[in-house]
């Protein structure tokens, strides 16, 4: 029997972030593990009058590609992929994995080859989203692997996840509209600010956000969401930041990361785990060593670290800083095939100043 919460999640996804309507060409990307949610979303899309189609991959395919493909095959981008990203009206990416470490043995240089090759596609997606031509959303399908990363049983992780999505509430859409309103009040303040300075243990980082747009993360592109973010002026980032939380990415886990910036660029990187991975990723292209995004996590339903950046970057009382590509809607100009988010817990002994005024302390906004 299908979990009724999945059916409710599917309805909310099609109605709220994806806004499916008659005639939409709708792409659903997922692994076979997410089949129950895929079926539910496909059904709701048909009811909305859209034309859904599937791109289903198998868990473990990426490992085969990285280990067996030639550099030419890794770099190949078909005309079909390019046409697809120009034609679709909406895309839902459902993240799920049977083994979060299935790429642990992959040569990182080969990962970099594919990231560089995919840069035009990722840039085109961001461009179409910023122009309002493409509705895109990413969500998660809970698996034993994702539950293990969060140190929970699958049942407890499902309860946690659906709560973070507000699916356990009578009207989830009303909840996310309230989040949008609350975030808007904070953005009204931040939009008038020019310089931010973050101070906490092993961290003193400052940057300029003059003229940049703050984005209201309230469920339109990530689900669950709960984030307020922008892109710093590219060469303004200066100082040092240590990230208190580990992060599991597709290829590797990184932990105890410390970055030092001069004129916007990373000039020194340290890590207790995953240092080689970080250094390789910083060499992917010219934009990889610059900050593409700075954000505040504001989802009060995300109360624990899951090692999934799609969830952890939304955790209330945290900030996240991503190296690489800047979302065009923020006004950021940095272009890269890399998007590498890292997270700092600010719930104790932390301060953030805007133009010299303290406005965020110990994980809470003071405005």
Number of strands: 20
Number of helices: 12
Strand order of the largest sheet: 14-13-10-6-5-18-19-20
In the predicted model, the low-confidence regions spanning at least 5 consecutive residues are: none
Note the overall shape.
Answer: globular
Mean pLDDT over all positions: 93
Level of helix content? 25-40%
Task: Tell me the strand percentage band.
Answer: 25-35%
Count of the domains: 2
The first-to-last residue Cα distance is 47 Å
- What radius of gyration results from the CA coordinates? 20 Å
Summarize the structure in words.
The chain is α+β, with helices and mostly antiparallel strands and 367 residues long. It has two domains: 161 residues, 3-Layer(aba) Sandwich (Thermophilic metalloprotease-like), CATH 3.40.1830; 184 residues, no CATH class. 32% of the residues lie in helices and 28% in strands. Strand 13 and strand 14 form a beta hairpin. Helix 1 packs across helix 2 and helix 5 runs parallel beside helix 7. The N and C termini lie far apart (47 Å). The mean pLDDT is 93.
